[in-house]
Amino acid sequence: MRAKDFGAVAVAVLSLGVVAVVPLALSGGRWLSLVVLAVALGFVFFRVWGEQRIYLALRREVSGFHRLVQQLNTVALERNRSDSPETRRRLEEVRASMIESVDRMIEVAGKREIDLEAEGDPSGLPG
User: Domain spans of the chain?
Assistant: First the structure.
């Protein structure tokens, strides 16, 4: 859930909670008002933290790609200090790994874990 969505849901639920709690509290129904507020807060927390990611293979591959971007920057900084054949070779290795990673992202995009297992790849990543 994006932060903007969270804010909208939180405001709506908390507004409903306040609208329900204030009259109940004024009428002496304090326990009931606390229950209504607890349910409202529970709804907000469930919407934010209760969602499950279903495209885990793609998420793993994107995380790996992020690490490759960090490696790319590290090697590029080394190349800026000393443009040697070794740093150029390492730069090409990272570049090749990034291309392979993009190919794997294309392979797993839009597929759930169960879909990948049905295709015979329990790791979620093409071999």
Answer: 3-49, 56-118
Tokens of 109: 């995009």
Q: What is the DSSP string of 44-102?
A: HHHHHHS---S-HHHHHHHHHHHHHHHHHHHHHHHHHH---HHHHHHHHHHHHHHHHHH
Distance CA 127, CA 125 (A): 6
Q: Taking CA 64 as the corner, what is the angle to CA 91 and CA 100, rounded to the nearest 5 degrees?
A: 60
Contact 30, 6 (CB under 8 A): no
Measured CA to CA, the distance from residue 72 to residue 56 in angstroms comes to 24
pLDDT tens, residue by residue, 38-70: 666 666 666 655 556 778 899 999 999 999 999
Q: What is the pTM of this model?
A: 0.55
17-22 contacts: CB < 8 A, separation 24 or more?
A: 17/41
- 1 pLDDT exceeds 50? no
